[in-house]
Amino acid sequence: MCFNKYKMGSNDDEYPSEEEAWVFYKDREEWADVTPVPQDDGPNPVVKIAYTDAFTDVYDYFRAVMASGELSERALELTEDALNMNAANYTVWQYRRKILKHLGSDLEDELNFCRHMIELNPKNYQVWHHRRVIVEWLGDASKELRLTEIIFSQDAKNYHAWEHRQWVLRTFKLFDGELDYVDRLLEEDARNNSAWNQRHFTITQTTGFTPDVIEREVKYAKKAISKVVENESPWSYLRGVLQHCDSGLGSVCDLEQWCQQMYESGERSPHLLTFMLDLMEDKMERETSERESTLKKSLDMCEALAVEHDQIRREYWRYIARNLSHRFGA
């Protein structure tokens, strides 16, 4: 791809330098044959947007190109300028793809352009969608995992980058080493919800949650919780793992005993107490022999959460207590 020779404000060496002056399309000799199409806001716009002169110029010519159906190199360059001014414009990206396909453009060059745009707009859905389409056309995702890792080094919880990574892993079957990568992320930040979600996604897409895997993952979550009990992320992950378990939750890796030991040591994290409530609810659903005593413990714990350990959700815990009494009371 030939990037525009007219400056659009990039510092990248591949792009025009700061010294190059921007020239309006209306003043470019090679565009003299095109009549710009102004934006039509109707006779009485509620809020008239104050576009810059350069923005108005570029988009007036883009509308003209679309209206005539022109699919040329200069039209491709025009879309580049339009995207530099508004990278979230779906119509421009879609028309750019139409031009690329018509011209048979070098898609490796397009990946380079797209990476540049992602680095400038890492949370822009349209940029990531465009890259996905180009990767699909190429049938080659060899650069994608590394790209997402670069983005995660700047923002480990970038939703669009995680969505792209999951699409690549699932579509091109590139799961080898993914759990090791997630391990590294969680070692760096055990509160990285996205990495915990990725761990669950990877297991779901590969081995599945077999009994052996469930036991392994419960131990993994317990180890993370033991380091920082107040970290909600591994508690949430533990719940997600146990959803795949058919037996009583407390029996898995001695979870009931493990929680009780923490409780008896004086630990009163709301996450611990909430999880203990989950275990007791599961126990009452499966057994009737100790239901009365288990219900009393549950109600006491709800009240402790309401008045001491999680006061901001006081009314919620009292609602839970009423619900438990209704379901399991005599």
Could you walk me through the main structural features you see in this protein, from its secondary elements to its overall organization?
Helices cover 63% and strands 0% of the residues. It is mainly alpha-helical. Among the domains are: 175-246, Serine Threonine Protein Phosphatase 5, Tetratricopeptide repeat, CATH 1.25.40; 254-330. Helix 12 (255-264) packs across helix 13. The longest helix is centred in the last third of the chain and has 19 residues, at 291-309. The N and C termini lie far apart (75 Å). Residues 8-19 have low confidence and may be disordered.
Keywords, please?
63% helix; mainly alpha; 15 helices; single chain; Serine Threonine Protein Phosphatase 5, Tetratricopeptide repeat; 330 residues
Give a short synopsis of this structure:
By secondary structure, the chain is mainly alpha-helical. The chain has helices spanning 53-68, 73-85, 90-103, 107-120, 125-138, 144-154, 159-172, 178-188, 193-205, 211-227, 232-242, 255-264, 270-286, 291-309, 314-328.
SSE string = HHHHHHHHHHHHHHH
Count of separate DSSP helical elements: 15
What share of the residues does DSSP label as strand, in percent? under 5%
Instruction: Output the radius of gyration.
Output: 28 Å
The portion of residues assigned to helices is 55-70%
Q: Ends: how far apart?
A: 75 Å
Structural class: mainly alpha
- What is the number of beta strands? 0
What is the general shape?
elongated
Average pLDDT, rounded to a whole number, is 92
Oligomer: single chain
Biggest sheet, open or closed, and with what strands and sense?
A: none
